[in-house]
Amino acid sequence: SSSSSSSSSSSSSTSSSSPSSATFDAATFFHTHVLDPLAEVNRKVHDGGTRTLISLASLLGAQRLFEGNKPLSYVAYSGVRRDGMADGGREFEQPYIKRVNAFTHPLNKSFVTRFTEVLDKAMNSEHIYVVVQTLVGGGGMKHHPHRRHTSLAHRDILFGFVFDTFYDVGHRDTAEELQNDMTKVLKDTMPNDADNVRVQWGSYGETNMKNVHQQYYGDEQLYKRLQHIKISVDKHDTFHTSFTVVPKADPIKHGEL
Q1: How far apart are CA 46 and CA 41, in angstroms?
Q2: Full-prediction pTM beyond 0.70?
Q3: 209-217 and 220-233 are packed helices; what angle lies between their axes, rounded to 10 degrees?
Q4: How far apart are CA 29 and CA 177, in angstroms?
Q5: CA–CA gap between residue 49 and residue 43 (Å, rounded)
Q6: pLDDT value of residue 163
């Protein structure tokens, strides 16, 4: 097929006691918290006599990634971006335009209808491959008494989505057209949020923080707080990209943060 889709709307997690050191027996952890639960799913879930798409054979092969002691960072990276992915760690090997948007207001039927229309268009476009994921938040932390102790942005997000358009070489224009279609959907159907609520882990469009920090942080006071932290630990902006917090040296009033 000339068009593919990878979609995920939820994720499952397991809880375990924290290891006492930076490394642990990753193979045992992998069996206990991944292979065994999935084996139980495969025993219970059938579709017309065909087992679910979870491939225990591929998971058993992936176990080789976890043999011996590994740093926790390696385990996290391996579980998310190595097994079952293209060589570059993404769902497809083609170049792509990434997009993540979020909302602080409830969805409406108009958005759902228009979003589906754009997705259908993408799925039926030749040389285009699509990844769609959703994220859900409760918004409850915005007014929590401990809110002022962190600088995490957009704690009032209710819903968000990933819309990544991968494209074959020579077909970037089609991928950009689809992204422009999605921007129009947001502005037409969700005017209170539109394209203005973004997340640091999934940037879209311009990434120069001098111009778009409001979209990624929302709260001007929160961003100002981060600017002063930045100037206190890296006043020369040595660790810099266009996407990092821009230092600010002007004095801050007592109690302002």
Answers
A1: 9
A2: no
A3: 120
A4: 44
A5: 11
A6: 95
Distances (CA, A) of 113 to 108, 109, 110, 188: 9, 6, 5, 12
* Of the candidates 77, 156, 158, the residue with the CA atom closest to the CA atom of residue 111: 158
The pair of three-digit structure tokens given for residue 59, joined into one six-digit string: 């998971």
Q: In whole angstroms, give the CA distance from residue 97 to residue 202.
A: 11
Say if residues 182 and 118 touch (Cβ distance below 8 Å): yes
pLDDT the model gives residue 56: 47
The total of other beta-carbon atoms located within 10 Å of residue 103's CB is: 22
Residues of the chain with confidence (pLDDT) below 50: 1-22, 45-59, 251-257
**In this structure, what are the phi and psi dihedrals at residue 172, rounded to the nearest 5 degrees?**
-65, -35
The tokens for 200 are 């640091």
pLDDT score, position 165: 96
**Are 80 and 62 contacting, i.e. CB atoms less than 8 angstroms apart?**
no
